[in-house]
Amino acid sequence: MKILVIEDDPKTGDYLKKGLRESGYGVDLARTGTEGLRMALGEAYDLVVLDVSLPGIDGWQIMPALREKGDVRVLFLTARDQLSDRIRGLELGADDYLVKPFSFTELVLRIRTLLRRGPAREADVYDIAGLHLDVLRRRVTREGAEIALTNKEFLLLHLLVKRQGEALSRTLIASEVWNMNFDSDTNVVDVAIKRLRAKVDKPFATPLVHTVRNVGYAFGEPPSEGGD
């Protein structure tokens, strides 16, 4: 897999180039927006790590050209941390948005996730059985009623919704939502599910979050393996 990093800060750029190469990727580094766009359009890359504030042309201007090129993945890595910036980046067509300062481990996990997805981009809005989930605005309603979720509850619901119908193990959920593996005797996933159900299911007639015996949890119709 080949990655292009477009980053003008020398220290950050060198750090990303070295770290991503050590993680097994082929990496090219561009230090200006102009150079980065030229390289992105002239070479075949699987993913572009793109800063917003760049000399020459900025990341906002580069993004439309990358989308015209085709299905190259784009991850914004920037100090621009306002919600409006994140929305703008994703609306321009980026596949992910990570704010500096960042965890390198999290960056690699996000890159791996993006490169596993294939050509199709993840949906930004989901409407399922009266539940509306807006990923960009981090807004959830059901039957028109606003549902206030914590950050982890939102990530958990998003995971369940985007993989609706699948039986997800506690180990997978812990890895995806908390970015780490938990000991088998840790009940953090079960506790989080209980809190999520209290907000998403309890006030409504039809439950959407189901327990799959000996596996974990699923969203939507109960899987054929059996549930509660």
From TrEMBL:
InterPro entries xrefs: CheY-like_superfamily, CusR-like, OmpR/PhoB-type_DNA-bd, Sig_transdc_resp-reg_receiver, WalR-like, WH-like_DNA-bd_sf
Domain of life: Bacteria
Coiled-coil region(s): none
Sequence ranges assigned to domain Response regulatory in this UniProt record: 2-115
GO cellular component: cytosol; protein-DNA complex
Xref: Gene3D superfamilies: 3.40.50.2300, 6.10.250.690, Winged helix-like DNA-binding domain superfamily/Winged helix DNA-binding domain
TM segment ranges: none
Entry's Gene Ontology molecular function annotations: phosphorelay response regulator activity; transcription cis-regulatory region binding
Keywords of the record: Cadmium, DNA-binding, Phosphoprotein, Transcription, Transcription regulation, Two-component regulatory system
Alphabetical list of PROSITE patterns matching this protein: OMPR_PHOB, RESPONSE_REGULATORY
BP term (GO), one: regulation of DNA-templated transcription
DNA-binding region of this protein: 123-221
UniProt modified residues of type 4-aspartylphosphate: D51
PANTHER family hit by this protein: REGULATOR OF RPOS, TRANSCRIPTIONAL REGULATORY PROTEIN CUSR-RELATED
Listed name of the protein: Two-component system copper resistance phosphate regulon response regulator CusR
Species this chain originates from: Acidovorax soli
Record lineage: Bacteria, Pseudomonadati, Pseudomonadota, Betaproteobacteria, Burkholderiales
